Amino acid sequence: MAQDAYALATQPGGMSFIVNPLDRCAERRGDSDWLARLMAQPDARFVVATAGKLVLRTGVAGMRHTLAQAQALGQDGAETAFLGLEPTGAPLFACTSTLTEDDLEIRDGLEVVDLRSLALRRDLAEADIGALAQARALAHWHLSHRFCSRCGAKTQMAEAGYRRDCPSCQAQHFPRTDPVVIMLITHGDKVLLGRPPRLAEGVYTTLAGFMEPGETVEDAVRRETYEESRIRVGAVDIVLNQPWPFPANLMLGCRGVAVSTDIEIGQDELEACHWYSRAEVETMLAGTHPDGHRIPPGISIAHHLILGWLKETAA
Ligand SMILES: [Zn+2]
Fold first, then answer.
1. Which residue, 187, 206, 173, is CA-closest to 306?
2. 143 and 205, same structural domain?
3. Most CB within 10 Å of its CB: which of 78, 144, 267, 302?
4. What predicted TM-score, i.e. pTM, was given to this entire model?
């Protein structure tokens, strides 16, 4: 039942953030001489991030800035992380800017844009979107972990950006990835889709929620589905996964089989939730649903969980 993630990303309208060809060279991150040599290479390039956005140069160079260009954009030298070697062998780094988004936005030839908008535009290669997802998630973690969670002292970047060290209590801190279960729940030939209030008008999607400590993926699917819809779920399979760097989630795409059908939505999570037939979901995909209901865009795992089910039941 597992879906082929690479095929999903490379087809038109494919899922975003799942193709990242960078060689992260994790085994060499502790070698500061090697990193310093890479950073000084003329072909080294830098992705520049602000608190919530990415700084691109308009035109073909796009997201890749030279060291001099990154410095002119307020590169914080102590906050520069190594993303990896590109397929060409050129090193790619990510840094945060000390300038504000307002300062950067008024400069000619620059675009300050959030990653979700960039992914939706589809004018960068998916491999670049994947590298930007890595840069965005790392930048968010560094910007929000400047101080030690144990003793409150200022921390320093280490291991090429994959650790922060506290010089006061010697604690080591590692980048977080927060797993989220997202599940397509079926009952016979129907699928359960709900509407969290934050979504664009008319969009209905698969239910989702954060995993909790000490919980399996399967139990998280059952708990979250019951919490949001009061539907009981039996068998669960993990079918697909996707990094979702908003700010640092990993979406665990699942399929679950409902063992009850009466929906009752909770107070906070959903404003609506329905069982949809296959014919109805086809109209949502085609944009012809009589009430204007539609499914999320192709960059998201929800779209591909729904599409996978539609194709399977059509067979
Ligand atoms: Zn500390």
1. 206
2. no
3. 302
4. 0.92
Q: Is the confidence at residue 3, as pLDDT, over 80?
A: no
Q: What is the pLDDT of residue 283?
A: 96
Ligand 1 mean position to 34 CA, how many Å?
28
Q: pLDDT tens digits, residue range 99-120?
A: 999 999 888 899 999 999 999 9
Alpha helices by DSSP H, 18-100? 32-40, 67-72
- Quote the percentage of the chain above a pLDDT of 70: 95
* Centroid of ligand 1 to alpha carbon of 165 (angstroms): 8
Domain count, the chain: 2
Give 143 Cα–ligand 1 centroid separation in angstroms: 17
What is the pLDDT at residue 282? 95
Q: Within this chain, do residues 136 and 244 fall inside the same structural domain, yes or no?
A: no
Structure letter (DSSP) for residue 18: -
Model confidence band, residue 1 (pLDDT cutoffs 50, 70, 90): very low
Q: How far is the CA of 67 from the centre of ligand 1 (A)?
A: 32
Cα(164) to ligand 1 centroid in Å equals: 10
Report the CATH number at residue 102.
3.90.79
Write the CATH number for 303.
3.90.79.10
Q: How far apart are CA 308 and CA 315, in angstroms?
A: 11
- CA of 75 from ligand 1 middle (Å) equals 26
